[in-house]
Write the C-alpha coordinates for this entry.
Amino acid sequence: MFDPSDTAQRRFAAYGPARLPDARDDDLNAFVDDLIVGGPTIVANTLATISNRGREVLRAYAVRMASLVVRRNDPTQLLSAVIANVVGGLDENMHESLLAMAPIEDGARRLNVDLPQLFEQASKIVGHPGTVNLMMWLTRKPEDRTLASMSYAAGTDFDGFRYRYER
Amino acid sequence: MGSTGPAALRSRGRQLMVAITTISLLSAVLPQPARANSTSHLVVRGTITGVTVNPNLSLTLGVDRKMSVYVGSNPTWENVWDSAEARPTQFAVELRQFTGAGYRWDGWYLRPPGS
Protein backbone atom coordinates (compact mmCIF):
# COMPACT_ATOMS: atom_id res chain seq x y z
CA MET A 1 0.00 0.00 0.00
CA PHE A 2 1.40 3.40 -0.98
CA ASP A 3 0.74 6.27 1.41
CA PRO A 4 1.68 9.52 -0.38
CA SER A 5 1.82 11.48 2.88
CA ASP A 6 4.44 9.18 4.46
CA THR A 7 7.55 11.31 4.90
CA ALA A 8 9.94 8.35 5.05
CA GLN A 9 8.68 6.00 2.30
CA ARG A 10 11.01 3.27 3.62
CA ARG A 11 9.17 0.59 1.70
CA PHE A 12 10.16 2.38 -1.50
CA ALA A 13 13.87 2.71 -0.75
CA ALA A 14 15.89 2.19 -3.96
CA TYR A 15 12.65 1.80 -5.88
CA GLY A 16 13.65 3.83 -8.95
CA PRO A 17 16.54 1.62 -10.14
CA ALA A 18 14.95 -1.64 -8.94
CA ARG A 19 14.26 -4.39 -11.48
CA LEU A 20 11.31 -3.80 -13.70
CA PRO A 21 8.65 -4.87 -12.96
CA ASP A 22 8.76 -4.95 -9.18
CA ALA A 23 6.12 -5.91 -6.63
CA ARG A 24 6.00 -2.29 -5.49
CA ASP A 25 4.81 -1.28 -8.94
CA ASP A 26 1.54 -3.03 -8.13
CA ASP A 27 1.01 -0.84 -5.06
CA LEU A 28 1.49 2.25 -7.16
CA ASN A 29 -0.66 0.90 -9.99
CA ALA A 30 -3.48 0.54 -7.48
CA PHE A 31 -2.86 4.01 -6.09
CA VAL A 32 -2.91 5.65 -9.53
CA ASP A 33 -5.97 3.64 -10.52
CA ASP A 34 -7.74 5.17 -7.52
CA LEU A 35 -6.74 8.64 -8.75
CA ILE A 36 -8.10 7.83 -12.20
CA VAL A 37 -11.43 6.76 -10.70
CA GLY A 38 -11.57 9.64 -8.20
CA GLY A 39 -10.53 12.38 -10.60
CA PRO A 40 -9.65 15.99 -9.75
CA THR A 41 -11.13 15.96 -6.24
CA ILE A 42 -9.08 12.96 -5.10
CA VAL A 43 -6.00 14.34 -6.86
CA ALA A 44 -6.44 17.67 -5.05
CA ASN A 45 -6.86 15.90 -1.72
CA THR A 46 -3.71 13.91 -2.39
CA LEU A 47 -1.73 17.01 -3.32
CA ALA A 48 -2.82 18.67 -0.08
CA THR A 49 -1.05 16.05 2.02
CA ILE A 50 1.66 14.53 -0.16
CA SER A 51 5.21 14.47 1.19
CA ASN A 52 8.35 15.24 -0.79
CA ARG A 53 9.34 11.58 -0.52
CA GLY A 54 5.90 10.62 -1.76
CA ARG A 55 6.43 12.83 -4.79
CA GLU A 56 9.83 11.21 -5.43
CA VAL A 57 8.27 7.76 -5.41
CA LEU A 58 5.61 8.81 -7.91
CA ARG A 59 8.18 10.36 -10.24
CA ALA A 60 10.23 7.17 -10.12
CA TYR A 61 7.09 5.20 -10.91
CA ALA A 62 6.35 7.49 -13.85
CA VAL A 63 9.73 6.86 -15.46
CA ARG A 64 9.49 3.13 -14.73
CA MET A 65 6.10 2.95 -16.45
CA ALA A 66 7.47 4.88 -19.44
CA SER A 67 10.16 2.20 -19.74
CA LEU A 68 7.63 -0.57 -19.33
CA VAL A 69 5.31 0.65 -22.10
CA VAL A 70 8.21 0.70 -24.55
CA ARG A 71 9.47 -2.70 -23.39
CA ARG A 72 6.03 -4.25 -23.73
CA ASN A 73 5.05 -2.19 -26.76
CA ASP A 74 1.82 -1.47 -24.90
CA PRO A 75 0.84 2.16 -24.20
CA THR A 76 -1.70 1.30 -21.51
CA GLN A 77 0.45 2.45 -18.59
CA LEU A 78 1.42 5.73 -20.23
CA LEU A 79 -1.61 7.50 -18.78
CA SER A 80 -0.65 6.26 -15.32
CA ALA A 81 2.85 7.62 -15.89
CA VAL A 82 1.53 11.07 -16.76
CA ILE A 83 -0.82 11.21 -13.78
CA ALA A 84 1.87 9.99 -11.40
CA ASN A 85 4.27 12.62 -12.67
CA VAL A 86 1.72 15.42 -12.29
CA VAL A 87 1.06 14.39 -8.70
CA GLY A 88 4.80 13.83 -8.33
CA GLY A 89 5.46 17.52 -8.88
CA LEU A 90 4.36 18.75 -12.29
CA ASP A 91 1.41 20.44 -10.56
CA GLU A 92 4.05 22.85 -9.24
CA ASN A 93 6.34 22.65 -12.25
CA MET A 94 9.01 20.98 -10.13
CA HIS A 95 12.30 20.59 -11.96
CA GLU A 96 12.49 16.84 -11.30
CA SER A 97 9.03 16.27 -12.71
CA LEU A 98 9.94 18.21 -15.85
CA LEU A 99 12.90 15.86 -16.28
CA ALA A 100 10.58 12.87 -16.03
CA MET A 101 8.40 14.25 -18.82
CA ALA A 102 11.10 13.46 -21.38
CA PRO A 103 10.89 9.65 -21.03
CA ILE A 104 7.10 9.90 -21.07
CA GLU A 105 7.15 11.87 -24.32
CA ASP A 106 9.82 9.63 -25.80
CA GLY A 107 7.78 6.56 -24.91
CA ALA A 108 4.70 8.09 -26.49
CA ARG A 109 6.62 8.82 -29.68
CA ARG A 110 8.01 5.31 -29.90
CA LEU A 111 4.50 3.88 -29.65
CA ASN A 112 2.90 6.53 -31.89
CA VAL A 113 0.74 7.82 -29.06
CA ASP A 114 -0.67 11.29 -29.68
CA LEU A 115 0.78 13.29 -26.80
CA PRO A 116 -1.83 16.11 -26.75
CA GLN A 117 -4.60 13.51 -26.70
CA LEU A 118 -2.88 11.67 -23.87
CA PHE A 119 -2.53 14.92 -21.93
CA GLU A 120 -6.16 15.80 -22.58
CA GLN A 121 -7.16 12.47 -21.11
CA ALA A 122 -4.88 13.04 -18.12
CA SER A 123 -6.14 16.60 -17.63
CA LYS A 124 -9.65 15.34 -16.95
CA ILE A 125 -8.21 13.33 -14.08
CA VAL A 126 -5.66 15.73 -12.59
CA GLY A 127 -7.69 18.92 -13.07
CA HIS A 128 -6.23 22.28 -12.18
CA PRO A 129 -3.33 23.25 -12.08
CA GLY A 130 -1.78 20.10 -13.51
CA THR A 131 -3.65 20.69 -16.76
CA VAL A 132 -1.92 24.02 -17.39
CA ASN A 133 1.50 22.55 -16.72
CA LEU A 134 0.88 19.64 -19.08
CA MET A 135 0.04 22.19 -21.75
CA MET A 136 3.20 24.13 -20.86
CA TRP A 137 5.27 21.05 -21.63
CA LEU A 138 3.89 20.99 -25.16
CA THR A 139 4.90 24.62 -25.67
CA ARG A 140 8.56 23.96 -24.89
CA LYS A 141 10.93 23.92 -27.84
CA PRO A 142 11.43 20.39 -29.22
CA GLU A 143 15.12 20.52 -28.32
CA ASP A 144 14.14 21.26 -24.70
CA ARG A 145 12.02 18.12 -24.50
CA THR A 146 14.50 15.49 -25.63
CA LEU A 147 15.85 12.73 -23.43
CA ALA A 148 19.35 14.18 -23.62
CA SER A 149 18.21 17.67 -22.66
CA MET A 150 16.56 16.19 -19.58
CA SER A 151 19.55 14.01 -18.61
CA TYR A 152 17.95 10.74 -19.70
CA ALA A 153 19.07 8.12 -22.17
CA ALA A 154 17.37 5.11 -23.72
CA GLY A 155 19.12 1.83 -22.99
CA THR A 156 18.58 -1.70 -21.80
CA ASP A 157 19.01 -3.68 -18.60
CA PHE A 158 18.86 -7.44 -17.95
CA ASP A 159 15.17 -7.51 -18.71
CA GLY A 160 14.92 -5.23 -21.71
CA PHE A 161 14.39 -1.62 -22.67
CA ARG A 162 14.84 0.97 -19.96
CA TYR A 163 15.23 4.74 -19.58
CA ARG A 164 18.34 5.64 -17.65
CA TYR A 165 18.93 8.85 -15.73
CA GLU A 166 22.40 10.18 -16.44
CA ARG A 167 23.71 12.70 -13.94
CA MET B 1 -28.19 78.92 -11.87
CA GLY B 2 -29.21 75.44 -12.96
CA SER B 3 -32.44 73.75 -12.05
CA THR B 4 -32.57 72.09 -8.62
CA GLY B 5 -35.96 70.45 -8.93
CA PRO B 6 -36.49 66.72 -8.15
CA ALA B 7 -36.33 65.69 -11.83
CA ALA B 8 -33.06 67.55 -12.37
CA LEU B 9 -31.55 65.99 -9.23
CA ARG B 10 -32.55 62.50 -10.40
CA SER B 11 -30.99 63.19 -13.80
CA ARG B 12 -27.75 64.38 -12.19
CA GLY B 13 -27.76 61.30 -9.98
CA ARG B 14 -28.02 59.03 -12.99
CA GLN B 15 -25.21 60.88 -14.75
CA LEU B 16 -23.02 60.60 -11.67
CA MET B 17 -23.72 56.85 -11.41
CA VAL B 18 -22.81 56.33 -15.08
CA ALA B 19 -19.59 58.28 -14.58
CA ILE B 20 -18.60 56.31 -11.48
CA THR B 21 -19.36 53.00 -13.18
CA THR B 22 -17.33 54.00 -16.23
CA ILE B 23 -14.35 55.03 -14.12
CA SER B 24 -14.56 51.81 -12.12
CA LEU B 25 -14.56 49.68 -15.23
CA LEU B 26 -11.74 51.57 -16.88
CA SER B 27 -9.57 51.59 -13.79
CA ALA B 28 -8.94 47.87 -14.16
CA VAL B 29 -7.51 48.13 -17.65
CA LEU B 30 -6.11 51.64 -18.09
CA PRO B 31 -2.70 52.65 -16.82
CA GLN B 32 -3.47 54.64 -13.68
CA PRO B 33 -0.47 54.38 -11.37
CA ALA B 34 -2.15 56.42 -8.67
CA ARG B 35 -4.92 53.84 -8.38
CA ALA B 36 -2.90 50.69 -8.87
CA ASN B 37 -2.03 50.09 -5.25
CA SER B 38 -5.66 50.10 -4.25
CA THR B 39 -6.44 47.21 -6.62
CA SER B 40 -5.90 43.84 -5.01
CA HIS B 41 -6.40 41.62 -8.01
CA LEU B 42 -7.44 41.52 -11.63
CA VAL B 43 -9.96 39.12 -13.03
CA VAL B 44 -8.90 37.09 -16.04
CA ARG B 45 -11.45 35.25 -18.10
CA GLY B 46 -10.23 32.84 -20.72
CA THR B 47 -11.56 32.61 -24.23
CA ILE B 48 -10.46 30.55 -27.17
CA THR B 49 -11.62 32.99 -29.82
CA GLY B 50 -13.18 36.41 -30.16
CA VAL B 51 -10.44 38.57 -28.68
CA THR B 52 -11.30 42.11 -29.75
CA VAL B 53 -9.06 44.19 -27.50
CA ASN B 54 -5.40 43.93 -26.61
CA PRO B 55 -5.70 40.80 -24.49
CA ASN B 56 -2.44 41.36 -22.69
CA LEU B 57 -3.07 44.84 -21.36
CA SER B 58 -4.61 43.95 -18.03
CA LEU B 59 -2.23 41.01 -17.56
CA THR B 60 0.82 43.17 -18.20
CA LEU B 61 -0.44 45.60 -15.60
CA GLY B 62 -0.84 42.72 -13.19
CA VAL B 63 2.74 41.54 -13.65
CA ASP B 64 4.23 45.02 -13.54
CA ARG B 65 2.51 45.84 -10.29
CA LYS B 66 3.01 42.45 -8.62
CA MET B 67 -0.67 41.98 -8.08
CA SER B 68 -2.39 38.70 -7.35
CA VAL B 69 -4.56 37.57 -10.23
CA TYR B 70 -7.87 35.78 -9.85
CA VAL B 71 -8.27 33.40 -12.78
CA GLY B 72 -11.96 33.48 -13.53
CA SER B 73 -12.04 30.68 -16.10
CA ASN B 74 -11.42 27.03 -15.36
CA PRO B 75 -8.23 26.11 -17.24
CA THR B 76 -9.59 22.91 -18.71
CA TRP B 77 -7.70 21.28 -21.55
CA GLU B 78 -10.14 22.77 -24.06
CA ASN B 79 -9.49 26.23 -22.61
CA VAL B 80 -5.71 25.99 -22.75
CA TRP B 81 -5.02 23.90 -25.86
CA ASP B 82 -6.33 24.54 -29.35
CA SER B 83 -6.42 20.99 -30.70
CA ALA B 84 -7.32 22.05 -34.23
CA GLU B 85 -4.29 24.32 -34.50
CA ALA B 86 -2.08 22.26 -32.16
CA ARG B 87 -1.11 25.31 -30.14
CA PRO B 88 -1.93 26.96 -26.81
CA THR B 89 -4.97 29.21 -26.67
CA GLN B 90 -4.65 32.93 -25.99
CA PHE B 91 -5.80 32.21 -22.44
CA ALA B 92 -2.95 29.74 -22.04
CA VAL B 93 -0.45 32.21 -23.43
CA GLU B 94 -1.59 34.72 -20.82
CA LEU B 95 -1.30 32.18 -18.02
CA ARG B 96 2.17 31.26 -19.25
CA GLN B 97 3.22 34.91 -19.02
CA PHE B 98 2.37 34.90 -15.35
CA THR B 99 4.03 31.60 -14.50
CA GLY B 100 7.02 32.63 -16.59
CA ALA B 101 7.26 35.74 -14.44
CA GLY B 102 7.43 33.58 -11.33
CA TYR B 103 3.76 33.62 -10.35
CA ARG B 104 2.55 30.50 -8.53
CA TRP B 105 -0.88 28.94 -8.40
CA ASP B 106 -2.78 29.30 -5.15
CA GLY B 107 -6.17 27.78 -5.77
CA TRP B 108 -7.74 29.96 -8.45
CA TYR B 109 -5.28 32.79 -7.81
CA LEU B 110 -1.90 33.40 -9.34
CA ARG B 111 0.33 34.90 -6.65
CA PRO B 112 3.33 37.06 -7.51
CA PRO B 113 6.82 35.96 -6.55
CA GLY B 114 7.67 36.69 -2.93
CA SER B 115 4.07 36.96 -1.77
